[in-house]
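PT: before anyone asks, these are the final sequences, not the draft ones from last week. 1516 residues across everything. Please model them as a single complex and drop the result in this thread when it's through.
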Amino acid sequence: MILVNPNPATIMTDPDFADATYIEPITSEVLESIIVKERPDAVLPTLGGQTALNAAIALDEAGILAKHGVELIGAKVEAIQRGEDRQMFKELVIESGADVARSHIAHHLDEALAFADDLGYPLVVRPSFTMGGLGSGFAHTPEELLRMVGDGLHSSPTSEVLLEESITGWKEYELELMRDTADNTVVICSIENFDPVGVHTGDSITVAPALTLTDREYQKLRDIGIDIIRRVGVDTGGCNIQFAIDPADGRIIVIEMNPRVSRSSALASKATGFPIAKIAAKLAIGYRLDEIKNDITKVTPASFEPTLDYVVVKVPRFAFEKFPAADTTLTTTMKSVGEAMAIGRNFTQALQKSLRSLEKRGSSFHWEGRPGDVDELLALSAIPTDGRIVTVQQALRAGATAEQVFEATKIDPWYIDQIVLINEVADTVKNADELSFEIMQEAKDHGFSDAQIAQLRGRLEHDIRDHRHYLGLRPVYKTVDTCAGEFPAQTPYHYSSYDFETEVAPSDRRKVIILGSGPNRIGQGVEFDYSCVHASFALSDAGFETIMINCNPETVSTDYDTSDRLYFEPLTLEDVLEVVHAESASGELVGVVVQLGGQTALGLAKGLEAAGVPILGTTPDAIDSAEERGLFSKILEQGGLLAPRNGTGTDYASAVAVAEEIGYPVLVRPSYVLGGRGMEIVYSSELLADYFDRVRDQAIIGPGQPLLVDRFLDDAVEIDVDALYDGTELYVGGIMEHIEEAGIHSGDSSCTLPPVSLGKGEIDRVREATLAIAEGIGVRGLLNVQFAIAAGVLYVLEANPRASRTVPFVSKALGIPLAKAASRIMVGATVRDLVAEGLLPELDGSDVPLDSPISVKEAVLPFKRFRTKEGQVVDSVLSPEMRSTGEVMGIDRDFPRAFAKSQTAAYGGLPLGRGLRERRRPRQARYRPAGPAPPATRLRDHRDLGNRDGADPQRHHDQDRRQVLRGRRIRRRPDQPRRGRHRDQHSVRVVGSCRRVRDPCRDRRRRQGAVHHDGAARRGRGVDRGHPHRLRRDEPTRLCARARSEAVTAAFGTRLEAAFSRYGQLCVGIDPHPYLLGEWGLPATAAGARDFGLRVVEAATGHAPIVKPQVAFYERYGSAGFAALEDVLAAARETDLLVLGDAKRGDIGTTMDSYGDAWFSDDSPLRVDAATAVAYQGLGADAGFIATARAAGRGVFVLAATSNREARLTQTAILQTGSTVAAGIVEGVLADNSPSDQGMGSVGLVLGATVDLADHGIDVGTLRSTPILAPGFGAQGAQFSDIRRLFGAASGSVLVSASRSILSAGPSGVAESIRRASGEVTACLA
Amino acid sequence: MKTSTLRYLAQRGFDVIVVPQSISADELRAIGADALFYSNGPGDPAASDAQVELLQGALREGTPFFGICFGNQLLGRALGFGTYKLPFGHRGINQPVWDKTTGTVEITSQNHGFAVDAPVDGVLDSPAGFGRVEVSHFSLNDNVVEGLRALDIPAFSVQYHPEAAAGPHDSKHLFDRFRELVISRNGASA
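LR: through. Structure below.
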């Protein structure tokens, strides 16, 4: 099993999960190289969402699957297309006798306008083949239509947009189906959308099972669903079909299907206990449903339809507060960033639990104050927005009738009635003389929290809780078992309910409760879940019974088999305390882990401690000391550490005073926030006033919640450290260097691990500072510290004694299981113990070997999803407030490649061309319009750049970054923060926004890629094609890559052999002949020759083992020509191409020795891996040259025979020894190689491919293991298919040299040409 | 009996005559029906000797037969097998059944507390002398007999509810199978 995914934050990319794991961008090029390397039998694309499906289609269309004999399983390409191509799908639905919305496909704007006249406004616009409904929505007017169709044509890879009659307001349903090879088809789950059609299902409140359908209606959906999955031909696996039903007449329309496991499948799996993805994978490899056991019962088969004796409600979590300009109206484009799910015995219970699971102010129903005006509330609820359900509840509370609410919202009357019921129960609670057992029981049956009851009664939450406990009223825990109790469940997957008997089995083990991180939101995503899951695994291995509490269905922690017990519960103090109580009934509860679940879990620590629950690891008081400014300052003082000058203010006046004292710009942030909520860089008092205006509504600043004001460090490098501390010993997990300068939230900035520009001195300082902080706070477990280095001074920005979002990245990049180790430390293990038992590597993250690969983390940002009401893309300027929703990782042997991979994975590739604006640039220069940038200048060696003791950091940052950016000619990320987020910078941001959405040129190329099947080659240009890094279960994760240092250690022959095994035997000539330069559109100058060389190097990287620049074509331009050649050589050194300098030097004595120094010595700018030489003065004349090469681990190719007619005379001349000159040279080389070289020799021969070797008296049989440079292929007459005939047993050591035949493909075709030639050579040698 | 059973039979061209369970063999013969259908009960199959004898008579005369639920239990008895009360009855609309004829799973609607006692594998000899018989369907949850098929006489039955309502429609095709059986036996006149 080989897994490809560039996301480091997910458990699945842990090396333990697959036989081989590639943290690589999912692009055709990368996938092909992995296929070549791993030779898999099949590719399974139906579990990785739309990204995976699209990649599979691309692989298939490019013929890559066929070429390597790899099968696509799970779904055939035709089936994917039938499901995703809207027109095909509609025809198929109609064939099955079901109905579809009337629609047309438009390819251009005029067509769209004409169709709109037919369908009438409003109508739905949906671009084909985009994920998450991107770009779809309603057009109410021709103007809106034009805008949306324009965008849609742009974002659809096939330039198609579907226009459709509006079915807004209809009831919406989904079925999750599974089918196996024997055509057994079952419906796993029905899901009903609370919000009617018009809101993306990901943004809807959804309910499982469907509650407002009769059996007849449901069976009809089921019949249609099964018929469609068969017609589409989803061979095996899961599939999701969406339906709309007209509430007026019951007309059923099939909206769409996803022939793959989707977001809804994940929800359905958690809702039913039926593991859809797991079963889908088994079906894909040929199992039938009846052959697979139900995971929960372990005795019954998976060929059944789960029955629910409970109700599941999922609610979306939005992050509009992060995008103040964005339109908050919910449409068919998904805008939510996460979700929470809750389970209850009835709808009201599940609904109220789910709303409080969102952990967001105002997300739950309330009965505070006066509800407001009925008409106003009704008007508000007519527009679907975040929190509409609360508006509906308030409208009903204000006296609106259920009919009025239905008219306004089209929410099914049954649901409205349920909210009416909740309001009625609230009235009962509020008006009761006393809170009797019966009233409390009723309130709890309908999901009221202690907090809500407290609010209704005007009491404190804990008073209500005490009263409830006094009444003896506590929840019991029921089980999610797929079969409603028909068969015993083997998996303890529980939810609370105020029912009668508990189903929690007693246990006498030592238990640890792990608090999860709740719904995904910006600043708190699956990275935290990763840590929770690791803790669960590690503690389970250490003999504890692990108990997980979480309410996020998108996580691994809520898989029923991750922990020993799972409680699917809201992460509120009430719900957690009840689980603690239930689990305390048996066994020994050792404690609760709060430091891994982000702010959600951390926020519960004090309440739990107050209730007498043991908190594992860092104590709540210690956690406070890191958050509380005064306490933290003391800790820094004791450690002799500096923080940027700072102060706190609780209102505008005090904040301004602080800011003026320490000087602008200042960084302001409210205390106790995660993800940089409300964090900004402020440049003046006016802007500070504006800041206070904007955050006023959020009530995040005030007495007890001070605003932290820090001096903002301009032009600083930010460093993130994750570390473990056991009370005595510090273990550094990883030191990450941000690629953006300080001021961008760490979650949004990309970072590199190990740091590429810190010297040992800095690393030691960072380590010491981290230790001082860990001691000062009293950390037991994980600690994350952010530092900045400005002008050589180390500042501490902040410290968080908890898991950070970089834990998974560090774990993957260095193979240090931080969260596992942290959880063990929390239950008493020491760092030393963990190193001794092998959980932690001996060397910690501050001691990374120089030859370790480089990992780059890049944030994935959701700006594209958000638009203002006017339809503009929202501001995409990055700031100290985090906005990213995910991350990817690129890993490779050096920084440029790793960075390129991270960009490819995040954004689909680096832009090409001359769009460079440097990322680091003095601030005063930032506002300049981006002028044309210089073309790629010389690439510098890593060796010159750092990782050396005492290197000067400042210089090295600049050099290194410039190197990256120039080398790739890119400008990729959004702009840095500048003066506020204000209108004066409007023009700058518009440019930023446009770039962000997508560069139209690139997009066109992408579309062509999809249509013309040659996309892979085109898209491949300029993007890294380095080697996929593979994490193996049986190998240490610390991969050994080629040393980044330039000093060559292995002999040339050995390196050549390795390069052959990786990339085949094609030697790509770099011959910038003037006529070729002309063909390439380059000037016949040194500059032209340099560009030519750089492009060939770029094109050959990853496809050929070696390039051969023809020195004469550079030499002809004199010193400028040599400078150009040096640039080309430097560029090639940055890749893993070997370079063979073709100058055919020949002379005697010290002259020849000097040539050796020129081409081989470590400090020569002309140094190459090997060079050609002539030896017609006798091989002895070349001895010095060869010796220099050998000493430096380099190689020499001695000319023995070329095919040129005029050379034959000399070559076939008979020596005194009786052999020909050519044969004599061959003998000399063989003699030179044999004693010292193992495997391939380092001294080789040049033997023309069209030379009659026998005529020259050369026996190819003797040449095995001698490198042979064989020019003459392609334009000069020899064919690749001749290699075996010409060289026989020695074929394995031939460098098949071709230049003109490849280079004549021109700059756009050269990469493809090399790839093809390389493939042919390999095929001919196979 | 359930209306949907009558509806499905009528939809397939049957003229359906509903008679009480107390009908005698002579009265049945007098109707001159092309085929016989036993509905879903309820009742204890072990206590329904008269209906078993009536069915045996019809089977001997070669009358095509289809039974559902209780009808399956009575066919079982008529063919000479016993019946027994299940420790846990099969209830609900999500019961997976293996159809040996098609080699696929059907999700069925079930509501039975009794079952036919017969081995689910291989071809059996009818203890009552009706030739070869096989268990055509069985439960994937607990291997209980869910259908019988006589191989030498035109008779079959299922323990579950192909007429569903409530429940899935996976097994509706059994009514077509009955129609074909009757046609092949009696000619196209049906």
